[in-house]
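Progress report, Aim 2. The chain analyzed during this reporting quarter is listed below.
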Amino acid sequence: MNATTERLVQLVLLVVIVGGWQLGVNSGLIDVFFFPSPIEIIKQVVAWVIDPGFYKHVTMTLTETMLGYIIGTAVGVAAGVWLGLSQSTARILDPFIKGLNAIPRVVLAPIFVLWLGLGLWSKVALAVTLVFFVTFFNAMQGVREVNPVVLSNTRILGARRFDLLRHVYFPAAASWILSSLRTSVGFAVVGAIIGEYLGASAGLGYLIAQAEGNFDAVGVFAGIFILAVFVLLIDLVLDFVEHRLITWRPKLSERPA
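Predicted structure tokens for the chain:
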């Protein structure tokens, strides 16, 4: 199945789902109090988009997401590479890392609000905790998966530690790290939204919380729709970056079916 056919199948599925939803609302089979009409949701989205004040909320959520994503990824990759290379340190810190990873992130949200207030950084901190462990475990595993024969040959050729990091470890772990970057995008958004949901004066999570408080299902679904588009756009950027950085990987169209 080629790419064009796959896109057509996706479009058909979208039309069937949305069309069936709208037909269910029109026929009375679906209660609009719980599942509002897709047309009403789109109207709400359009009303927000044409309102200049809406972009204050988008900017706030985007800023929280990107800061949490960048900081969490940077710290996670650095820690993962470090512990991937230092087996003894990894064994010493293993129970502490597992214990921290076991803490539900939602429990941390009120603590961050208490420490950092209702502003930007409490949301960023929550996003960082969600992103960090995803990138950390992938980076550490990617470094440990390096072929020992390649390492030995590179050392024989006179490579120093920095050369090994640059030419062996990071390229070998690139697939692991980039796959974690895709997953962690959603976690960064979740961290920002949960933080806004619990307490904020702006952001998409704030809009959704307001709509829920007013029993406005249209507003809730419109916010969810915008968040989905938000994540898809970031994923497209990551897809472009991945193709530029991992040029040796064959494209999907070139892989055997």
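The chain has ten helices and no strands. The longest helix spans residues 161-198. These observations will guide the mutagenesis work planned for the next reporting period.
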